[in-house]
Amino acid sequence: AVVSTQSTGTEHVPEKQDKKDGAEYMTKVIEQQAAELRKYRDAVQNMGKDIIACRDYILALKQDNTRLKNNLEKLQEPIHDVSLMNIPRDNLIKEVLRARRLLREQTEENKELNEKLSSMKLNFASFETERREINELRNAHTSQNQLLQKLQDKVKVTRV
Q1: Gyration radius from the chain CA atoms
Q2: Its pTM surpasses 0.70
Q3: In which region does residue 145 sit, left (phi positive, over 0), alpha (psi from -120 to 50) or beta (all else)?
Q4: How far is CA 140 from the centre of its chain?
């Protein structure tokens, strides 16, 4: 009996040519799937680390954003402080404009990171789905290997 060639992505599974090689063939298939599963697991772990790093960075950006907003609000309040009265109006305007620019940049960066985080969450969900499918495939091959072994044992018994 000849079994068709299967591909697990990057690796190629050799064709099975006779009954004696059945167990070896199934072992190779299972080993290749286990290697693929390890690759997916590593990718998911790396993605999880990236998501955590992005969340931390977003939190820091939000804190900076809040601080900058507070600074901007303070700058927009009427000036009653004598020390600020001594600063030329042009310099104060420049500082307010600089603070607004920083706020706008931080807000844009925060938005981009939130979009990246959403994308990474979708990728993570996709990897999880693929991991489940690989586990199901591995379980199916294991049960096929057990069935093949039983059938080979029956063939041996009938030949004796």
Answers
A1: 31
A2: no
A3: alpha
A4: 26
